[in-house]
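Figure caption, in words: inputs first, then the predicted bound structure.
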Amino acid sequence: MEFRRLAEYYERLEATTKRLEMRDILVELLREATPEEAQRIAMLSLGRLYPPYVGIELGMAEKLAIRAIRSVTGASEAEVERLLAKRGDLGLVAEELISRRKAQTILLQEPLTVEQVYATFERIARETGEGAVENKVKLLTGLLAKADPKEAKYIVRLVTGTMRLGVADMTFIDAASALLGDVAAYRDEIERAYNISSDIGQVVRLVKVGGIEAVRSVRLRVGVPVRPMLAERLTSAAEILEKLGGRGLAEYKYDGERLQIHKDGDRVMIFSRRQENITHQFPDVVRMCSERLRVKQAIVECEAVAMDPDTGSMLPFQELMHRRRKYDVEKAAELYPVGLFFFDAIYVDGQDLMDRPLPERRSVLEEIVEPSEAFGLTVAKLVDDQGDLDSFLQRAVEDGCEGVIVKDVSPRSVYRAGARGWLWIKYKRSYVSKLTDTLDLVVIGAFHGKGKRSGWYGTLLMAAYDPKTDTFKSVCKVGTGFKEEDLERLKSMIDERVVPEKPARVDSLMQPDVWVRPEIVLELVGDEITVSPIHTCGWGSVQPNAGLAIRFPRFTGRYRFDKGPEDATTVEEIVEMYRSQLKTVVPEEGEVV
Ligand code: AMP
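Bound structure (adenosine monophosphate present):
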């Protein structure tokens, strides 16, 4: 396929914010592409070259892309900067400067293909070491020299990671299902293939090559991360037990980092909640698993918690941040050791356990985990009584945990990859009339700071995620809880993600000074949830023409790098929290509520 054609599709996608329209445009695009092109287009459209676990990222610094644009167009630095300030998007700058070139230089060229662009991006991404910067610029220059203005716009946006089409992995799942002619019939199977392969490009390619049969043939593989099963949340023991049919396995909810560990003979690989390969951060975990997981092959999950080496007690999540560095990880591992608490087994020695009920998976874990002080299963207790569940929660909190996760133990309690279902339910400290739980919200906009905060963003516009519509709905403005280093850090994180218009997946009535691509997840606490005429979260679900807002929100200091925007607190959870707040108002004697 010619790249020009893809650029046309991108323009059409950009012109709409409606999910169904986007899906239909993608169907047309996928229909026209060969299987290999479809795979690459899916990856590129999501701003990637490969699935996250491969660890090679597209993403060239803006200043390098500027050098390439200048060398193709002959524009001066001042001119590029002036245009960039005016247009706010380097893609548009490239489009404008290239359109000024003489027409015949372009006519003489062979048209660019998707394959060529992708292959050049691959070379750019793989350049490392000495001379890498020069080579990257050269490669991009070569590409832009062959591009027409519209192509240049998208090449620059793709390579600098600033595409803003508003399509997500789930939009591709919908499109791939529609391509087979029946969304309802095929969506679940296509999603399943994605959840166990974590590779949307591969799934799209399979749909093209062999239809639903090929999709069905996707199997778990050691070394390829599975998208994690997620938990819902409820606020009382009674509701939880009712939802689970009267009984469940309550487990401590540890406050650390989720690790998916793959063991293949002598080799141990560790993947994050977002499917990145983070093996290098945990040399100690690799050693522990080599010694203490008594299996040849396995995919298991645990929570890694920072431990105090002197007392053996659990430390706050932040201590794990020491691992996020390139050098001296061994030293960090020694100073800040971790304990591992295993809670699931997905695959063991040739057997896919995903469709087995939890009690069976847990007994496999018991067989293969050889415990030591810092290595074992999560503390767990089978409960069928509200009082027991509440006292177990109490114990968990006293032992330094965030709360508990109560899990379904019925025959239907499978491992549901990539999904929240009512099979795992979070239960944190009890809700009194105040909001004591934390929320993970997404930055969608920012307001310039004044006075002491001038030069930084003073207030951020935050949103919850709505999986039903795949949108981010505004729920509060937050300006409290930021230390000076946070303001500095957020300034650069936000500046990298500023977009000139409201992103397609953002739903907000409020207009911030700058719109921000919904990618940064922050942990907040608030006092309570109130009805609000200006925030779109839960619009109409509690009162007509009103949404919900967090009152007195504060940043807790915790950046949720481990969560993608789609893992943020959902609109439904906030509506549920609002309702449970109401329930905890104790009626006066004799009063009818
Ligand atoms: P949250 O991040 O608040 O949605 O809570 C779900 C997370 O809790 C999981 O992704 C795990 O990282 C973590 N977790 C801690 N203890 C457990 C447990 N016993 N079972 C499952 N997940 C756990």
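Confidence is low (pLDDT under 50) at residues 585-593.
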